[in-house]
Amino acid sequence: MYGLVNRALQEFICQHHGDASWQAIKTMASVDVELFVRMESYPDDITYRLVGAACESLNIAPATLLRNFGRHWVLFTGQEGYGSLLDGAGSSLQEILSNLDDLHVRVGLMYPALKPPSFSCANVSDDGLTLHYFSERPGLAPMVIGLIEGLGERLGKSLTISQTSDRNTGADHDSFDIRIA
Ligand code: HEM
After folding, report:
1. Whose alpha carbon is nearest atom 36 of ligand 1?
2. Minimal CB count within 10 Å: which of 11, 24, 155, 169?
3. What is the pTM assigned to this prediction?
4. Distance 116 CA to ligand 1 centre (A)
5. CB atoms closer than 10 angstroms to residue 171
């Protein structure tokens, strides 16, 4: 994944656990990259190793870390340099989630080697929707939940999210039911 993601992970860990923790996590993950370059593409394996080492060293379950990182991504990373992309994606959760593929196409103009996920919405109503999530990468459904939670916070909406299909239990993709209060 692009360095942008690894840098955001670094900022997230440093903000909550300090710089020394991040250095220890990099060492534990055998990652000897001094500083991730946002516009450079790195093997996915590096990101997975960093997440694994962070969970082990901080004694946090992967689902919890990924979920909190997802919220952080929307509320901080997305906000900092890419707030206008998020704003342009829509003004309601239904609209933004329906436009996620377009959003990543726009991101891909800046990051040409991007391998974005794909989303589709179903059962869209005023008080909720079903979100289908497709990715070539395994294990990131908890991050999607955190990303949606971050979008909800950004919009000042209280959400109830439940996973309705799960690749971990044999489904071909992950899906979520989202209720908007
Ligand atoms: C303006 C805000 C956003 C930017 C700049 C952005 C950019 C990116 C980038 C650079 C990656 C790494 C992919 C790669 O390097 O190949 C990524 C992955 C991802 N993005 Fe976004 N994104 C944004 C918003 C969102 C939102 C709102 C969601 C909501 C669900 C989302 C869902 C994901 C997921 C789940 C991945 C993990 C990769 C995968 O599943 O295969 N992104 N995004």
Report:
1. 117
2. 169
3. 0.97
4. 6
5. 12
User: What is the amino acid identity at position 34?
Assistant: E
Distance CA 161, CA 177 (A): 6
- CA 152 to ligand 1 centroid distance, Å: 16
Any ligand 1 atom below 6 A from CB of 111 = yes
Helix (H, G, I), strand (E, B) or coil at 112: coil
Q: CA-to-CA distance for 71 and 68, rounded, in angstroms?
A: 5
Residue 117 Cα to ligand 1 middle (Å): 7
Centre a 10 Å sphere on the Cβ of residue 109 and count the other Cβ atoms it contains: 8
Distance 146 CA to ligand 1 centre (A): 12
